[in-house]
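User: I'm putting together notes for a lab meeting next week and I want to include a structural view of one of the chains we've been expressing. I don't have a solved structure, so I'd like a prediction I can at least talk through. The sequence is below, exactly as it appears in our construct file.
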Amino acid sequence: MNSWVTVVVPIFVCVVLPVLIVWLALRARQHSIDKKAEIMLKAIESGATIDPNLLKPQTEQKSLKEKLLGRLTGACVTSLLGVAFLVGGLVLDWDMAFMPIETSLLGGILLAVGIALFVTYFAGKNMLAKEIEAEETALNEPQR
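Assistant: Thanks for the context. Below is the predicted structure for the 144-residue chain, given as structure tokens.
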């Protein structure tokens, strides 16, 4: 029984779950395309004018500020995880699968990634300040 579970669970997680996720995403996209086609057919049948932008894919473009804030969020999360693993590996004596040295190593790697993301956030913020300001003014102009 135990050997059966150790074989089936990894196969399910590594094969079935990703295939299911891709299938659901493609099914949702196909459903939205079918709905748009149905609307277009109804509009053609009734003789109404058709908006050509209806069939274009609806992609949301993130602004530079949103991209930088996403990088800042990633930096905070990885840095905090890194500090937690470092403290846990150095101070606490866990009776888990990881040994304290591996936990500390993982914490150091996460902390280094977090620091690198902080550096890219602040460098990007300084380099793209004029572009971010131009985007904000362009967004605020139509509201006036």
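A couple of points you could mention at the meeting. The two ends are 69 Å apart (CA to CA). Helices lie at 2-46, 64-90, 100-127, 129-140.

User: Perfect, that's what I needed.
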